[in-house]
């Protein structure tokens, strides 16, 4: 699936894109406003979709003078599943965060990065995740770590249909990579979505490296 296009999981048509816009805010939209958000859709195509959805009662149409506005009918029986679909991205991040809380102090930090974080996913995109293990390399630590990582990758695929691409660091390896100015870590700092640990910890690890650059 594409986390940035949640309605594509049930419909590949423009209808899903338009519903995503209407569900994004408790507000009325003109056709031109919807078009500015979708960018690649034509005004005529959007108008036809809104007319179909209005006929179904899912969308409410108002006209003031020459201005036509459209908004999601939140009282419609279909409104709840529509809203649920519109929130798939945040639902995924929340579920991931809740699952990683079970790892306790074994996990120092985790973040989603790459196209899943920037909203540029394609249908076959991987979901990139960085994990920083609390113990240093060479320490036995938690014997179940590898099993947990394997299960995490399986769950990501089960939840989304996409492969989970997990990058792992022990704490000392992470600090060494940060000191060396590892580009991947700069990407995580710039675009990553924290799902375990604190963003302030990540920034503190990267600060010495950025100070030298």
UniProtKB/TrEMBL annotation:
Positions of the Polymerase nucleotidyl transferase domain: 97-134
Source organism superkingdom: Bacteria
Molecular functions per Gene Ontology: nucleotidyltransferase activity
Pfam families: NTP_transf_2
Record-linked CDD domains: NT_KNTase_like
Stated name of the protein: Polymerase nucleotidyl transferase domain-containing protein
């Amino acid at each position: 699936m594409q986390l940035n296009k949640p309605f594509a999981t049930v419909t590949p048509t423009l209808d899903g894109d338009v519903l995503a816009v209407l569900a994004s805010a408790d507000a009325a939209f003109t056709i031109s406003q919807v078009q500015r958000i979708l960018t690649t859709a034509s005004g005529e195509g959007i108008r036809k979709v809104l007319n179909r959805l209005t006929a179904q009662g899912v969308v409410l149409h108002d006209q003031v003078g020459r201005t036509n506005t459209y908004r999601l009918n939140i009282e419609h029986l279909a409104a709840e599943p529509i809203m649920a679909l519109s929130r798939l991205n945040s639902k995924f991040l929340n579920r991931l965060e809740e699952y990683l809380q079970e790892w306790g102090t074994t996990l120092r930090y985790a973040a989603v990065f790459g196209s899943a974080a920037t909203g540029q996913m394609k249908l076959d995109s991987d979901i990139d995740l960085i994990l920083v293990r609390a113990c240093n390399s060479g320490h036995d630590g938690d014997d179940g770590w590898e099993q947990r990582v394997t299960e995490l990758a399986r769950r990501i695929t089960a939840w989304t249909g996409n492969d989970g691409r997990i990058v792992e660091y022990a704490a000392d390896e992470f600090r060494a990579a940060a000191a060396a100015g590892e580009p991947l870590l700069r990407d995580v700092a710039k675009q990553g979505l924290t799902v375990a640990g604190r963003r302030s910890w990540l920034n503190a690890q990267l600060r010495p490296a950025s100070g030298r650059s």
